[in-house]
Structure formats: structure tokens, C-alpha cells
Amino acid sequence: MKITSINYEASIHYGRLAFKKGYHYYFENLFQISINAALILGVVSIAISWKNYGINEQSFLFVFILFTLYFNFLLFLKLTEDRLQVIKTQNTKEDNKKLVVDYLKQKEIRIQRNSKNILVAFDPSPNTVPFSSKRNYIVILFHEEYIYFTLFTERNKVNFPSLFDKIGLKKELAEITENRNQQ
């Protein structure tokens, strides 16, 4: 995923990463929406006459509903992945940036773009399944004492978002800035 032309002011104002999106980004979203629409249509068409089914068919319907809910949750994560998470610190913007850059170097995450207010980095090999093609792109914006960030996941075929990587990153960034405050 190539993240270029980030509009810093619009991103801070709207709370979403404002950047130039290619056609592939929109195609992925449309693809995932159509998969979810087909799954929901399948659940509705099967569930219309669920009383006529035996226990095995009702069990299948229950599992199919859970499967559909899981994919709807993934769709929600995909459609909201450009929403910026916010961490409020007691540090200045320069201190926050230094702490984050040191943290990224410690975790061996490569910094792709390092400008005054924007930091774009990617983790070439996150600790996942061996031979996985997953790559995490981290976009961090610094504004006064706030750190805004989001995380995009890139895979070979379809870029389904990671379930817990963004939560873990927020926790780690909050810890490093909090540790600085206590020193």
C-alpha cells in the first residue's frame, strides 16, 4: 500500500486519515461490501423458513450466522481503518516524536517517511504465521501534545484488517509516552 499525499490539517480536523487513495483501495472496499451483502442475503433466505429445518440444518444456520457476523465485523474494521486513534500526552510534540522514533527503531520497524508532523513506518515482518505476507503500515501524526495514529494491514490478496494490532499499538504508544512523564 502506497500512502502518499497525506493532508495533515484535514486529517487532524476530521479525525480520519486524509490521503490520496488509489482505485485498489476502493475496489477492496466494494469487494468486501459485496461479500457481506451476499452473506446477509444467504442468511435471510435460509432463515425465512428455519422452523421447517431439522436440528442439523438449524445448527448449520447458527454457524452460518456466526460466520456472517464475523465477516460483518471485519467489514466494519475495514471501513473504519483510516479513522485516527488519539493519545493525549503531557509531552511536547518534539518529545513525542523522539519517543516514537526511538520505539520504532527498538522494534525494528522501518521508517518510510519522517517529516515535521507526519511519520509513516512499516513492519516488514510482524510476528505472525511463518511465510505470511502480512505487512503493517503505521501512520502517526503529531499535533501539540496529541499523537494521532492509524494502522493499515497489507496482504497478498485481500487486505483484511488485523483484529488486535491497532489496540496493541495504542497500548504500547501510551506506555512509552506515560513512562516519559514519570521520569
Give an overview in words.
16% of the residues are buried. The model has no long low-confidence stretch (mean pLDDT 86). It contains five helices and five strands. A hairpin with a 3-residue loop joins strand 2 and strand 3 (118-123). The chain has 183 residues and is of the alpha+beta class. It has a five-stranded antiparallel beta sheet with strand order 1-5-4-3-2, with helices on one face. It is elongated.
Main traits of this protein?
5 helices; single chain; 5-stranded antiparallel beta sheet; 183 residues; alpha+beta; elongated
Oligomer: single chain
Tally the beta strands.
5
Which percent range fits the helix content? 40-55%
Q: How does the helix and strand content classify structurally?
A: alpha+beta
Order of helices and strands: HHHEHEEEEH
Shape: elongated
N-to-C CA distance = 38 Å
Counting DSSP H or I runs of 4 or more residues, the number of helices is 5
Low-confidence stretches: none
| Biggest sheet statistics | 5 strands, antiparallel
| Mean of pLDDT | 86
Major sheet: arrangement of strands? 1-5-4-3-2
Strand content: 15-25%
| Cα-atom radius of gyration | 20 Å
Topology:
Layout: H1 8-14, H2 23-47, H3 55-79, E1 85-88, H4 93-106, E2 110-114, E3 118-123, E4 135-143, E5 146-154, H5 165-182
Antiparallel strand pairs: 1-5, 2-3, 3-4, 4-5
Helix pairs in contact: 2-3, 4-5
